[in-house]
Amino acid sequence: MTNTFHFTCRHTDGDLALAHLAGDLDIATAPTLRTQALALIEQGHRHLILDLAAVTFCDSSGFNALIGIYRCVQAADGSLTLSAVPDRLDRLLHLTGLDTLMPAHPTAGDALAAHTRLQQADTA
Length: 124
What we know:
Helix 1 (30-42) runs parallel beside helix 2. Strands 1-2-3-4-5 form a five-stranded mixed β-sheet. The protein has one domain (5-123): STAS domain (Transcription Regulator spoIIAA, 2-Layer Sandwich). The chain has four helices and five strands, in the order ββαβαβαβα. Helices cover 44% and strands 31% of the residues. The mean pLDDT is 93. The longest helix is centred in the middle third of the chain and has 16 residues, at 60-75.
């Protein structure tokens, strides 16, 4: 268990925000993840992309924080998309079926492109 965790909002565009996460997602850092993600939602960014490329560890507390964030974006009629999901977390998302609710993309750029395609399809 460690307090090494960073949450950096790298991009905002209307109701979309892309945040880069780095470090360990565990019992000590999950509340920070949840608080910072919910702050973005409260600012009107109901579509979140979380870039997990620099996440080194995720325990059940971190996993539960992701589920809590998902519930909040759903309540705001938004979405939660993940990018660069570490292998162990990817397997857990798949085993629980949550990969169908929180789509994952290989990179943050891919996630942004997918979001743009969905937005364009919705307005067409």
